[in-house]
Prior knowledge:
One of its GO terms (cellular component) is plasma membrane. The chain crosses the membrane at residues 288-308, 328-351, 381-403. It is found in: Cell membrane. Residues 171-193 are annotated as: Disordered. The protein is of the alpha+beta class. It has 2 domains: 3-45 and 275-412, no CATH class; 98-240, no CATH class. Helix content is 61%, strand content 14%. Strands 1, 3, 4, 5, 6, 7, 8, 9, 11 and 12 form a 10-stranded mixed sheet that branches. A two-stranded antiparallel ribbon has the order 2-10. Strand 3 (95-107) and strand 4 form a beta hairpin. Helix 2 packs across helix 13, helix 11 (268-311) runs antiparallel to helix 13 and helix 11 packs parallel to helix 14. The protein starts with a helix and ends with a helix. The model is unreliable at 165-187 (pLDDT under 50).
Amino acid sequence: MSMLRYMLRNLLHRKFLSLLTILSVTATVGFVLLLSMSKAGVEEGAENGYGPFDLVIGAAGSETQLVLNTFYHVGAPTGNISEEAWEAVSEHQAIDRAFPMTTGDYFNEFPIVGIDSAYFMTRYGDRALSEGGLYRQTGEVVVGAHVAQTLGLHVGDSFTGAHGLVEGLHDEEEHGEEHEEEHEEGHEGEEHDAHEQFRYTITGILPRLNTPDDRAVFTTVDHAWAVHGVESGHREVTAVLVKPKTLLSGQELRDALESEAGVQVVYTSKAVADVVNLVDRGSELIEIVTLLCVLLAAVTILLSLVAAAGERTKDAGLLRLLGKSKGYIMASMVGEGLALTAFGLLLGYLAGHAAAYFLKEAVFNYAGIQINPFQITADHAAIAAGALVIGLAASMIPAFRMYRTDALTLFKA
């Protein structure tokens, strides 16, 4: 009997135990692979999230908060900066391009971002929209691909925004906290009416950009002022995205604005690196869970082969008496362990990529993480090598035990 047929017969003889072992490896590999693709998505999203804008200028506060809100549309802004401040930035000689941004209102859970339409050319180049064209006047919007897909939007549709954060900041500055508390109910009613009266019309839908901009609605900068009735001279913006001529000129701009009260200039790459490092530290707990899953799979393979060795002791002894060598018996045991691991590894790859495919929209909608289910990385090879090594190590223990026992002892057992 050939070794391959002998191994296959033994695996089919223990159908349930073999299936359980394969499923254990499948679940572990699929879980590890999904985590790997998610981590790659986080790193790629962090790198592509801010494009050519090496600097961002906003109200004093947390640098991380400013960058996350400006480029990733996450969380609340740090505040607003005055019209004089952002005009001074746009006129500075160190600037190649600068785009003031207003945020604070939402359409459903998606932020409405006010920014000049030239932003898209600067960041993404001359990419055609999926439908329609860019906005030209107040009240016109373009929507990200994910927003359009999620809400079923088309060119020509109209909607109203919802109360956000910008107006709350204006109220606090103009009236003070005590005065705001006394008139909170009245202001909420007025703001609600203002939002209901101001309608947006979709003029275009962006292509899939694979950046956080897929999850946003874009319109003119002055939309926030129009909705909230802010007059000239009192206008503010949430942030200014800056593409400096050079990194050195960016430092010149930062030095020039250091003295501005309530204004901060942030290096985007540094703030993003801080966030990624924080995510990496937080992922250590997930890595511990992953390690436990790997150990569980290894134990499952070990127990399966130990049980197989116990069942086949007499068969192994008979084969030895018929002339098969110790190496044959040992190789068959190791081969079974590697076969179970390889089957589980293959199914795990399929399960991991299938899970990424079906979960990518939900993960992107919830956390803004882009998962590419068709991406092949170096982690695939590392996972395969690790799984086979673990399967080999788990197989060696019962195989070596069978190898050391003499043929007559095996047969009498």
